[in-house]
Amino acid sequence: MIRNVLGSIVALAGAAAAVLSPFRAWYDGRLGRHYRIGDLFTGVTGAHPGLFDSILLPFVFAAVLTVVGVALRSRLLVALAGVVVLGFTVLWMVRQGQAAGELTISGNGSGLDQGVAGAAGGGVLLLLGAALMSGRGGGRLGARADRNRPFKAPGSAEPDTWPPTREPGPSVQTSPWPEPEVDPYVGPPRDTGPDRSSPSGD
């Protein structure tokens, strides 16, 4: 339960950082929402697209995936959102590097800026949140299985299985009276010896 809550908070923080990143400068003072999403596949141009025709669109999609994943406690959906954010960020860096010849980082506002750091950090937080989450019913099923296990005294040599299996061995008599002896011989009557009642002279 605690892992799900902690992972959800981290994932939602990552989704918020990713959605806010296009409203900050990405390269040479140009905002991330001023990059057309098609430029990521054909090459960066100077066109200024509409809000939902920009790089903001995949980040909004990732945020929706995150909210659904948190609601369903699905690690897969949250991890997929992180892959989407990091994938589009890396793809933008590749296209921007091709257009500018190189990617630089400087403190005077030129080169890579805070928007890229926000997008990359948001993607990492999404993956971290997915790793922290325990998923649906993982801990609850484990606790339920432990509750159903029989109590075993410390130091007991009984096998750790239920129901216990009985080892083959001699049967144990449960009746207080001894069982009658049964002669297993089933042939003709045995010879009991000479008839002592007959005269000895015959």
UniProtKB/TrEMBL annotation:
Record's keyword annotation contains Transmembrane: yes
State the superkingdom. Answer: Bacteria
Region span, Disordered: 139-202
Entry keyword set:
Membrane, Transmembrane, Transmembrane helix
Ranges annotated as spanning the membrane: 49-69, 76-94, 114-134
The answer, when asked if Membrane is one of the entry's keywords, is yes
* Protein name, entry field: Uncharacterized protein
Biological source species: Streptomyces brevispora
